[in-house]
UniProtKB/TrEMBL annotation:
Gene behind this protein: Crat_1
Any one GO biological process: carnitine metabolic process, CoA-linked
Keyword Isomerase: no
Family annotation (InterPro entries): Carn_acyl_trans, Cho/carn_acyl_trans, Cho/carn_acyl_trans_2
GO molecular function: carnitine O-acetyltransferase activity
Signal peptide residue numbers: none
Entry keyword set: Acyltransferase, Transferase
Domain Choline/carnitine acyltransferase: 16-64
Name assigned to this protein: CACP acetyltransferase
Pfam family, one: Carn_acyltransf
Entry annotated with the keyword Manganese: no
Superkingdom of the source species: Eukaryota
Amino acid sequence: PPAGRGPAGMAAQVLHGGGAGANSANRWFDKTLQLVVGQDGTCGAVYDPAVIDGAVVAEMLDHAL
């Protein structure tokens, strides 16, 4: 499981869901963009960058924040 609510734990939750015994089943690693929102308030975006759409996703996330 992730290392608590510290920065490392939140990053692990957003990136891979904490492993096979936790939330990894709801991560789609073949998709370009995933928005992750956890019950505990952890949120983030997992993005597989491509040069052509990097600016669009950055603008969208900036607007959301």
